[in-house]
Amino acid sequence: MKTLRSYLGDRWVEGSGARQTLVNPATEEPLAEASSDGLDLAAALEHARRKGGPTLRSLSFAERGMFLKEMANSDAKFDVDGAIFTLQTYAEIGTALGAAKFLVDGDGVQLGRSPRFHGQHISVPRHGVAVQINAFNFPAWGLAEKAASALLAGMPVLSKPATSSAMVAHRVMEILVEKKVLPEGTLSLLVGAPRDLPALLGAQDVLAFTGSGDTGMRIRALPNVIRDSVRVNVEADSLNAAVLGPDAEPGGDMYETFLKDVLRDMTQKAGQKCTAIRRVLVPEAHAATVRDDLAEGLKAVRVGNPALEETRMGPLASGSQLADVREGVARLVAEGKPAFGSSAPLAGKGFFMSPVLMEFAKGALAASVHAREVFGPVASLLPYSGKGADAAAIVARGNGGLVSSVYSEDAAFLEEVVSGIAPYHGRLFLGHPKIEMSPGPGTVLPQLVHGGPGRAGGGEELGGVRGLAFYMQRVALEGSRPVIQKLIGVQSS
Ligand code: NAP
Fold first, then answer.
1. pTM for this prediction
2. Average pLDDT of 21-42?
């Protein structure tokens, strides 16, 4: 069986001790083993800081962007679209930022009576290493989307994929190393348990984490993180909502767009997307029709091995994930009524389950719907009065999320819902039937910020050039105007 090695200090290294076995979730066949025991993580971080950091900082944004372009080209072998698109987008941002090595932040300001006394903010790359820990559900995209922002900003990266799905990130790394795409020390990969990795970080380092809220909380509470103000970005759980407006009558184009988005989000990647719709808010008058239409759509979804042509939904990623989802469904069932499917075990091997649509009465407490993310093909139908303020109040019970969507053309309703739920989200998707090839709310685009307040972790990634900010230090320069302008390369006027 293949042993997945880590790429640390610019060489492939193998952990010792007990290994974790990675299995094919469709067949439960063992695929590979991994261990990080015995690896010198402190030395790997120091190598990145000393070797990769200075190299990246000596390059301009355009030159760093060229590396991202080459990463995207190498990645093409995988056909991992999201990863490639994100790298390409950041390569273009690098080209646009040009020959500069740091960012000039806004216009300078006159600080006193004399125009000579001048202030200017700039953002410079931090001198540490960017540790990036990813969740199991987006192994290639997770690596690419985080690394793109950090490398373009000028920070070396140590990426740690979730162990259960690390094979994809490992293959990406193999190709990048084989093709010598990146300069030494700029990208490392740790496969296997994180061990004490977050505890090894200091004041110039940053940690970008994606995963469960519980792990995020543990990382944030580490003494070194608190003492040295280690910059931490957390992308965590989210109870994303889709709100159907009262004007979107069943059978109409807007209604059909809404149905399509809910069905796609419930079943794509077997619902294992942090941005998937979990709570479906519908005006009470249309609740039964929506339930029947969604059930009809779910009935047509063939669950099975993704290797088969007819399969429309594959398995969950691991046995523990399946157990976790089943437990989550049981909690929902204790409060509501299954309208479609169940989490009963399916015959045969593999971590498969049926999609599950839950139904709740209008005004039901539905505490678990608003408190626990069930990370699988599961959504809950919540009828509301049809008033924007009522929908917004229900959505807000999720305590902060990555994205929610609204389907309406009624300007007053939209304004009420958007203003009510915007403070609770990083992104709002306004569904419309006229948007051609709409990816729906579940797709994260590199041009827009990804992250959300509260339960979602309070983090922010991507968003074009905004994504660089996490890896850079903003500093205010205060002094003589000509001196500052010469320093930052602005022509004095
Ligand atoms: P997890 O158990 O928290 O694991 C996430 C990552 O953290 C894995 O790489 C894991 O490594 C590592 N890890 C575990 N314990 C750690 C510790 N004490 N210190 C440092 N790293 C540690 O979460 P998961 O079950 O893989 O992911 C599912 C969750 O991720 C869902 O709740 C989902 O909503 C969330 N998610 C959020 C986003 C987003 O962008 N907001 C995207 C995707 C997923 P090992 O695998 O080696 O244990």
1. 0.93
2. 94
